[in-house]
Specification:
This protein is α/β, with parallel strands linked by helices. It has a single domain (5-244), classed as Rossmann fold (3-Layer(aba) Sandwich). The protein is built from seven helices and six strands; from the N terminus they run H-E-E-H-E-H-E-H-H-E-H-E-H. It has helices spanning 5-36, 83-94, 113-116, 136-139, 143-157, 178-198, 224-244; strands spanning 50-54, 60-66, 98-102, 127-131, 165-168, 204-207. Strands 1-3-2-4-5-6 form a six-stranded mixed β-sheet.
């Protein structure tokens, strides 16, 4: 055994421990989310999402997809999730109708996002809003892999149409819960990569979301007021992208 091999073996212990802790917290987070229920979701076989409407002329068509916040954990209707408040805010800001279609999938990995939209993908939509799965925060062990997968997702989504994109950052866990202490630094790093990737495109914008307090299984971590606050952050960006590309959103 060479001398150089000794420190590598010693360093492996803390690294493996950190990985095991993050994987454990990820599994715990998924149990919490599954225990609190969520708003109605699309039928994966049909690729037709749940729609929320604001009646008006010249409607803006908005696609919401991915996982995480888009799923609507802790509420029972899409109007209580951020879909309802987002539609109303966009309609009020533009004076136009809004057709929002939600194609979110629970715990979906970023590699499967484009596939989950079906053959039509983002066609017919003027603006699309992606939300990462909460499980992504602890599943990725390398930031380079996360960056690569985000670029691949954007290329696949735009294969047929260059739709303006909103990339919602992961909600940062707050408080002193053990899950928050483990996940918070890594979520910050993943969000930083989301923003860096968005900056490489002229019609892709990253948006910070609202922090949340982790809880034990059965206790809600998100509710209708929380989603209303998220909608207030996303709506201005959707409106700006729609106004910047008026032909695409008609």
């Amino acid at each position: 055994m060479t001398r150089s091999a000794v420190p590598r073996r010693r360093a492996a212990g803390p690294v493996l421990t950190a990985i095991r802790v993050r994987i454990g917290v990820r599994r715990y987070a998924m149990r919490v989310l599954d225990s609190i229920g969520h708003a109605p979701l699309m039928d994966p076989a049909l690729h037709v999402g749940v729609r929320t409407l604001a009646v008006g002329l010249d409607p803006i068509r908005v696609l919401v997809f991915g996982g995480g916040l888009a799923v609507g954990y802790g509420v029972r209707t899409r109007d209580q999730a951020f879909d309802g408040p987002l539609v109303r805010l966009i309609a009020d800001a533009t004076g136009r109708g809004v057709v929002l279609e939600n194609r979110a999938v629970q715990h979906i990995h970023v590699q499967r996002v484009a596939e989950s939209l079906g053959p039509a993908g983002t066609l017919t939509f003027g603006v699309a809003v992606w939300c990462p799965s909460f499980a992504e925060a602890l599943e990725h062990l390398r930031l380079a892999g996360w960056r690569s997968e985000l670029h691949t997702m954007i290329r696949e989504l735009r294969r047929e149409q260059r739709v303006p994109l909103v990339l919602a950052c992961m909600p940062v866990p707050a408080g002193l819960h053990a899950a928050a202490i483990v996940a918070k630094p890594w979520v910050h790093r993943l969000n930083r990569v989301i923003k860096q990737v968005a900056d490489e495109y002229d019609d892709v914008v990253a948006v910070d979301t609202v922090p949340f307090l982790p809880a034990d299984p059965g206790r809600p971590v998100t509710d209708a007021p929380y989603f209303a606050a998220v909608a207030e952050l996303i709506a201005p960006v959707v409106v700006a992208l729609a106004r910047a590309a008026p032909i695409a959103v008609r």
